[in-house]
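Hi there,

I know you've been waiting on this one. I reran it after we fixed the sequence typo, so this is the corrected version. Both the input and the resulting structure follow.
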Amino acid sequence: MKKEKYDVLVVGSGPAGIAASLAAAREGRKTALLERYGCLGGGMTSSYVRPFLGSVGNETVGREIEKRIAEAESFCSPVEAAKIVLSEMVHEAGIDVYLQTQAVSAVTSPTPEGRRRIESVLAASHGEEFSLTADSYVDATGDGDLSSAAGAEFAIGRDSDGLVQPLSIMFTVEGIEPDTGLVCRHEEDWQDLGDGREYLDLCHKACASGELPASVNIVRLYLTGRKGERMVNATQMNRVYPLDPRSLAEAEYELREQVRKVVLFLQKYIPGFERIRVNGSCTTTGVRESRRVIGDYVLSAEDLFAGRRFDDAVVTDAFFCIDIHNPDGAGQAERDGCPYNPKPYEIPYRSLTPAGFDNLLTAGRCISGDHRAHASYRVMRICMAMGHAAGIAASLMSENHCGSRSIDIRRVQEAVGIRKDRADS
């Protein structure tokens, strides 16, 4: 078995994992990044998710990532630009990248304080096994795979029935007439088609009649930067357990069928879309929600609606709607299909520290929060901000040979651009 030693090990190379590994490596730490697929980027590449959603108030490496991807879009599509840029950035930072590598299990030991410490992670790739040890670990898998393997407690789904948000396949279509300006970004984005018909009304009627699937009552259309092309966010598979590979396979089949129905709907009813065809889609089904690792603090929807501030905040002025794609029906789950907006809120470091663990952090959608809060912070800009903070914290843990609760949180806040006097501003 091959053995390697690092200062910081990040598992998962989605928006949070990329930001975490870059932050740790740029602090001078010997950093490794594990990714189970064949390219970096997670949601923004393998799951074909665009555009970048959400916002944060503090400076993060996410802004640099976005800027460089936008510059690369001058010679390739947004998703392809992300693949190129992320590869460049981790190479420039000197990060050891393990592609097509799955973290299989974690070896832990007790600490004098009664917590657990990860000693090593067993990873596997193409029939070979690796024992990877580090001073600190960041779980940026989205699904909380590393935390679960180490024995951390987690929650999944909404409290009432355990259902998670639906899975989707994102795709792009080309062949739209160049002078067609139709876009539809969300459930309240009403669009007059210019002939007495309204776009969202057509979507709702097609869902009711069966021309669109029963779970699809809105076909979101985003600009991609190319004339005659749209990114489509519409397909939706409910009641899927996203940690079961057979359930995922069934969802993949159903969602690919839904792609066909959505395209036929657009061709039939939408002026300028008569000759469209699919020119790209995700390589792995998009999962919005799975494990939420229980941390020292569970961020709640009430915190978001109150715009709550925290002394140990590592993300400030985070904002995105409570975007709960209905786990058991079409559209949004709340307020007659129109999501609620919270106040700009903060994310505390304590939500990134799994309860009972000494040298493990989470970043991205698997942090500690409830079902409704998760629906806001799960988007890419907020995930990158969490990843940046986790990478800095993991670096400090390695530098000072200490656990996650012994670092100077002010050093994290300074590194991610959080002002000490922000509460008075």
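Quick highlight: The longest helix spans residues 245-269.

Best,
R. S.
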